[in-house]
Design a protein that fits this description.
The chain is an all-alpha fold. It has a domain of about 190 residues: MetI-like (MetI-like fold, Orthogonal Bundle). The chain contains 13 helices and no strands. It is a multi-pass membrane protein. Keywords: Cell membrane, Membrane, Transmembrane, Transmembrane helix, Transport. Belongs to the binding-protein-dependent transport system permease family. It holds the Pfam family BPD_transp_1.
C-alpha cells in the first residue's frame, strides 16, 4: 500500500471518528446530566463527568411521576402501530408494484402528494374524526390514524418492483392464490424491507409528540415525549432538567434495542431499495 493511499485512509478514519464523536456527544451529555443533581443546571462550570455521580434524578422522577405508565403507553403505541403499519405497507406496496388496474398511477401519485402535506393541515379534521368515534384519550387514537404510512408504502413498492414476475407466475401456475403467493413467495424475500419499515416506523411513533399531545389528555395516558414536556413546568422539581434527562436516558434504550435487532436488515434494505 502506497504512503499516499495510507495517508488518505488515516485522514478518512480521523474525519469519521470526529463526526461520530460530534453525533454521540449529545447523548453522552444527556447521560452526564442525568447523573448530576439538578442536571448541571445548578452549576456554571463545564465538566465532562460529575465529581459525585448519583442516581437521585432517576429515583425522584420515577417515584413522583407515572414514568413506567408513560413507557408502557409508548411501547403499546409504537409496537402495535408499527406492526399494523408494516402489514399495511407490505400489502399496499405489493399491490402497487405487481397488480395492473385502472387508476394505479393516479392512486400512487396521490400517495406521493400526501408526503408533502404537513401534519398541521390534517390535524383538526383528524381530531374531529377521532372524537366522533369516541377514541380521544385512548392509545387507539394515536395508533389508528398512523397506520397509513406513505413513506413506508413508497419504500415497499420500490422493493417489490425488484421481485421477479416469473417467480409469481410460477406460483400461480402451481395453483397458489394471490394471498398464498404473497405469503409464501414474496414475504420470504422481504427481510431487509421489513427491517427498514420496523426501524423507521418504531422510531417515528416512539418520538411522535404533536399528535399524542392533541388526543391524549389524562396524565397517566400520555406517551413519553408528551410526558417529558410536562416535567419542565412541574412544581415538584426545584430544577426539572435532571428529571428530564433521566427520563430521556431511559427513553433512548428501546430505540437502541430495536435498531440493534434490525440493523443488518436495515442496511440491506436501504441498499437494495436505492439500487432498484
Amino acid at each position: 500500500m502506497s504512503s499516499t493511499r495510507r495517508n488518505r485512509r488515516w485522514l478518512l478514519t480521523a474525519a469519521l471518528t470526529a463526526l461520530a464523536a460530534v453525533m454521540v456527544f449529545p447523548m453522552y451529555w444527556m447521560v452526564v446530566s442525568a447523573l448530576t443533581p439538578g442536571g448541571q443546571s445548578q452549576s456554571r462550570e463545564f465538566y465532562l463527568w460529575p465529581d459525585e455521580p448519583t442516581t437521585a434524578n432517576f429515583v425522584e422522577v420515577f417515584a413522583t411521576q407515572p414514568v413506567w405508565q408513560w413507557l408502557s403507553n409508548s411501547m403499546l403505541v409504537a409496537g402495535v402501530g408499527t406492526a399494523l403499519s408494516v402489514c399495511v405497507s407490505l400489502g399496499a406496496g405489493y399491490a402497487l408494484a405487481k397488480f395492473r388496474f385502472r387508476g394505479r398511477g393516479l392512486i400512487y401519485s396521490a400517495f406521493l402528494v400526501t408526503i408533502m402535506m404537513p401534519i398541521q393541515v390534517t390535524l383538526v379534521p383528524a381530531f374531529l374524526v377521532v372524537a366522533r368515534i369516541g377514541l380521544v384519550d385512548s392509545p387507539w387514537a394515536v395508533i389508528l390514524p398512523t397506520l397509513f404510512d406513505v413513506v413506508g408504502i413508497f419504500i415497499a413498492r420500490q422493493f417489490m418492483l425488484g421481485v421477479p414476475d416469473p417467480l409469481l407466475e410460477a406460483a400461480r401456475l402451481d395453483g397458489a392464490n394471490e394471498f398464498r403467493t404473497f405469503v409464501s413467495v414474496v414475504l420470504p424475500t422481504c427481510g431487509p424491507l421489513i427491517g427498514v419499515l420496523v426501524i423507521l416506523g418504531f422510531m417515528t411513533r416512539w418520538n411522535d409528540f404533536l399528535w399524542p399531545l392533541v388526543v391524549l389528555q389524562g396524565n397517566e395516558n400520555l406517551t413519553v415525549p408528551v410526558g417529558l414536556s410536562t416535567l419542565t413546568a412541574n412544581p415538584a422539581f426545584s430544577s426539572p432538567w435532571g428529571a428530564v434527562m433521566a427520563v430521556a436516558t431511559v427513553t433512548v434504550l428501546p430505540l437502541l434495542a430495536v435498531f440493534l435487532v434490525f440493523q443488518r436488515q436495515f442496511v440491506q434494505g436501504i441498499a437494495n431499495t436505492g439500487i432498484k
